[in-house]
């Protein structure tokens, strides 16, 4: 046993995963280098400079100090975490429920599946503009509909306490189709034997969900969490088209704050913001990914 | 002239999409002036569009061999972003229209723009205007449009109905507001924080500069030198406080959070609101939609706490600038000379209603102007004007509009807002490399 194990690598020095000679990778490496690695390194450098139309001056960590000192920049950081957690959580819960519902024996299942998935296909900016109109406090369809049944609808996007949540709900509406799709795929992939065995044991449909579907859906759940959390943490387009971070700074997230700094011509500061966003997403995602990957292996 | 070249842009109606497309296609030819067409980048406001169209029409009539294309960009911070990016990438057209004052200073004009101070046509431009487009010894712009007042546009019919007088102090203004509220038919003060209209929230602060200077004559210099700030100068803080007072007293229109600038102007003309603190170039905006509407409105400067004489804060109009990347500035210079001449302002007068005095010597304002313009003119005639802070100091923070929206919406107190804005301007001052920050 030991001899074969030792002689195997001597026989073939090359990594068995490597199917092609090294230079085959060069074109891809060049594209990746120019479009990803160089800009990443450059933005890291510019994050330490005061950069304007006349050039970039190295100022050390001042941009980062500024970024964290300003109350509304920090507010954006908090909002980002709220937004990410809220959208991700709702997508998991609603996606799972819709997934279970749309794999059960119901009429027009194919049609309902496509209806749920449809918002994923629509442009985010289009959705943002549409919902900004729908959510208008006085003329919007939503509040007019509420008025018909005698409810005085709130200013969805103009109430400082509600604006971020409203945008998050639209984000969920748009993104839940993808989560549902992943869950449907996960549920369909569960072997029927488990359900049959559960049936024999006399499990109710609730117990089916709790003890068969949920545990076996863990890979799907972790995929949904990772995708939606990354999406939520760096979300920008929907917030920008719906509220532009307003009213005031109440629905600003890190990405919209960075964009505003860039618009104002503070290019160094906005690069620093991007580095902070990158570190934030990494700090949340790397441990999460590792944790969930471990859980998966354990099963 | 060389018509074989592709006409990149449709007429002036070319939208942002076309601009982006053109920028992409013409990326290799900086300035894109190789086809003999004079390209001018302007913002998408009604006022700029109609003034520029009037100038272009008059110029091309006199010079039939010249073709001029107006390229439209968005306004506000998005527009600032486009201007900076196109300057930085050397992709700016032959000429562009942009603000004067502190926004111009943020473009690093001495390195980006051509110095026009040696041109003879600039002699007819008044010194007041030149001060707003000067960096160091270089003068960069030629004015398009007329002087603008920042203050309160008000509904004349409502004032007549309620028997109100034009207020000269803040207390009188608040008393008028209370009378309008008691009458119960209209909102005393219009605010518009809707889509792309947050900038209108700044007027309570920016248009108060006449009163600040009346109390603190050295304010602008001390502010630029980081010696005086909004939070620790009571006269400057008053602007924030006034906005808070108006909001807390319940004088604002109910839909202030979602109303847009244009809707606010329509509401003012219709009498749904009586006061609207805004710039007087709103009159051009109103005229384009509702030519009769302009005559319904009057104007007064934003009243202060106790100035000796009530006056008005004024804005310089925007200007046309010549980027240094223009390799063949001849045609552009000729057009600038036309804009700086009396023929230029006559063309503007013929095309668009005059809303204030010109900054070009020899230009006259017709006598039959709308009431609001006559009231603005009266302040100029009496010498009761002071420039807005952005023409006295390069320091202007980018977040003021969000901060004032927060004050007007009751999210943040005036004192807190002023302190936050002082922090915000610090970034801009450091970015500009000013002494003492």
Automatic annotation (TrEMBL), chain A:
For biological process, the GO terms are: transmembrane transport
Q: Which residues form a coiled coil?
A: none
Instruction: Give one Pfam hit by family name.
Output: BPD_transp_1
Q: Which InterPro entries does this UniProt record tie to the protein?
A: ABC_transporter_permease (IPR051393), MetI-like (IPR000515), MetI-like_sf (IPR035906)
Membrane association type: Multi-pass membrane protein
Q: Which UniProt keywords apply?
A: Cell membrane, Membrane, Transmembrane, Transmembrane helix, Transport
Report the principal subcellular site. membrane
- GO-annotated cellular components: plasma membrane
According to the lineage, what is the superkingdom?
Bacteria
TM annotation in the entry: 22-48, 81-103, 115-135, 172-190, 211-233, 266-291
Question: Where does the protein end up?
Answer: Cell membrane
All copies of domain ABC transmembrane type-1, residue ranges? 77-288
Looking at the keywords, is Membrane present?
yes
Q: Which family does it belong to?
A: Belongs to the binding-protein-dependent transport system permease family.
**UniProt protein name:** Raffinose/stachyose/melibiose transport system permease protein
UniProtKB/TrEMBL annotation, chain B:
Residues of the signal peptide: 1-22
Q: Sorted alphabetically, which keywords does the UniProt record give?
A: Signal, Transport
UniProt KW Transport keyword: yes
The compartments listed are: Cell envelope
List the PROSITE patterns.
PROKAR_LIPOPROTEIN
Q: Which domain of life is it from?
A: Bacteria
Q: What is its main location?
A: other
Q: Which InterPro entries match?
A: Bact_solute-bd_prot1, SBP
Family the entry assigns: Belongs to the bacterial solute-binding protein 1 family.
| Name of protein | Raffinose/stachyose/melibiose transport system substrate-binding protein
Organism of provenance:
Glycomyces rutgersensis
Q: What is the lineage of its organism?
A: Bacteria, Bacillati, Actinomycetota, Actinomycetes, Glycomycetales
């Amino acid at each position: 046993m030991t001899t074969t194990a030792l002689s195997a690598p001597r026989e073939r020095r090359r990594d068995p995963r490597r199917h092609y000679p090294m230079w085959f990778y060069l074109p891809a490496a060049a594209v990746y280098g120019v479009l990803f690695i160089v800009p990443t390194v450059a933005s890291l450098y510019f994050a330490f400079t005061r950069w304007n139309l006349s050039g970039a001056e190295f100022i050390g960590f001042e941009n980062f100090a500024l970024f964290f000192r300003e109350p509304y920049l920090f507010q954006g950081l908090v909002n980002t975490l709220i937004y990410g957690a809220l959208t991700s959580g709702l997508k998991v819960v609603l996606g799972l429920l819709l997934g279970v519902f749309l794999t059960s024996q119901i009429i027009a299942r194919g049609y309902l599946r496509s209806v749920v998935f449809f918002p994923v296909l629509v442009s985010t900016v289009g959705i943002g503009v549409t919902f900004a109109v729908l959510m208008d406090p006085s003329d919007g369809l939503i509040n007019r509909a509420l008025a018909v049944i005698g409810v005085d609808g709130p200013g969805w996007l103009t109430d400082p306490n509600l604006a971020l949540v409203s945008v998050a709900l639209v984000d969920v509406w748009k993104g839940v189709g993808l989560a549902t799709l992943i869950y449907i795929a996960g549920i369909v992939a569960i072997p029927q034997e488990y359900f049959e065995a559960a049936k024999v044991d006399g499990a109710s449909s609730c117990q089916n969900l709790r003890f068969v579907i949920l545990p076996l859906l863990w890979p799907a759940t972790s995929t949904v969490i990772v995708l939606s959390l990354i999406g939520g943490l760096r979300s920008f387009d929907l917030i920008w088209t719906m509220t532009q971070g307003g009213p005031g700074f109440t629905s600003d997230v890190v990405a919209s704050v960075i964009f505003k700094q860039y618009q104002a011509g503070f290019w160094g500061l906005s690069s620093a913001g991007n580095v902070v966003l990158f570190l934030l997403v990494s700090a949340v995602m790397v441990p999460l990914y590792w944790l969930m990957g471990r859980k998966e292996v354990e099963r | 002239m060389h018509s074989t070249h592709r006409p990149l842009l449709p007429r002036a109606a070319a939208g942002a999409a076309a601009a982006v497309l053109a920028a992409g296609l013409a990326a290799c030819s900086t300035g894109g002036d190789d086809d003999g067409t004079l390209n001018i980048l302007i913002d998408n406001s009604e006022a700029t569009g109609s003034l520029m169209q009037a100038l272009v029409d008059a110029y091309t009539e006199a010079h039939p061999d010249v073709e001029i294309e107006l390229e439209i960009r968005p306004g506000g911070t998005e527009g600032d972003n486009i201007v900076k990016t196109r300057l930085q990438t050397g992709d700016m057209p032959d000429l562009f229209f942009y603000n004067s004052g502190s926004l111009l200073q943020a473009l690093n004009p001495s390195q980006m723009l051509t110095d026009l101070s040696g041109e003879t046509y600039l002699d007819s431009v008044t010194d007041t205007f030149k001060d707003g487009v000067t960096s160091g010894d270089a003068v960069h712009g030629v004015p398009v449009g007329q002087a603008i007042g920042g203050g309160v546009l008000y509904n004349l019919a409502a004032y007549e109905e309620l028997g109100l007088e034009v207020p000269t102090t803040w207390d009188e203004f608040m008393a008028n507001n209370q009378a309008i509220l008691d009458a119960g038919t209209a909102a005393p003060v219009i605010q518009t924080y809707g889509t792309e209209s947050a900038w209108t929230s700044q007027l309570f602060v920016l248009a108060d500069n006449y009163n600040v200077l009346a109390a603190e004559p050295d304010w602008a210099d001390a502010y630029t030198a980081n010696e005086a700030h909004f939070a620790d100068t009571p006269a400057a803080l008053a602007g924030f406080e006034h906005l808070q007072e108006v909001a807390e007293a319940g004088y604002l229109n109910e839909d202030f959070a979602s109303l847009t600038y244009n809707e606010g102007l329509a509401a003012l003309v219709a009498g749904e609101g009586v006061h609207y603190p805004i710039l007087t170039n709103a009159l051009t905006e109103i005229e384009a939609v509702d030519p009769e509407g302009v005559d319904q409105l009057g104007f007064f400067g934003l009243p202060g706490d106790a100035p000796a004489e009530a006056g008005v804060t004024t804005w310089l109009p925007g200007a046309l600038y010549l980027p240094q990347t223009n390799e063949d500035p001849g045609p552009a210079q000729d057009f600038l000379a036309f804009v700086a001449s009396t023929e230029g302002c006559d063309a503007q007068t013929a095309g668009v209603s005059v809303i204030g005095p010109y900054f070009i010597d020899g230009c006259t304002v017709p006598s039959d102007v709308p009431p609001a313009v006559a009231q603005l003119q009266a302040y100029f005639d009496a010498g009761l004007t002071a420039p807005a802070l952005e023409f006295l100091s390069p320091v202007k923070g980018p977040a003021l509009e969000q901060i004032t929206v927060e004050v007007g919406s009751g999210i943040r107190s005036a004192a807190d807002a002023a302190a936050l804005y002082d922090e915000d301007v610090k970034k801009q001052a450091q970015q500009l490399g000013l002494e003492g920050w």
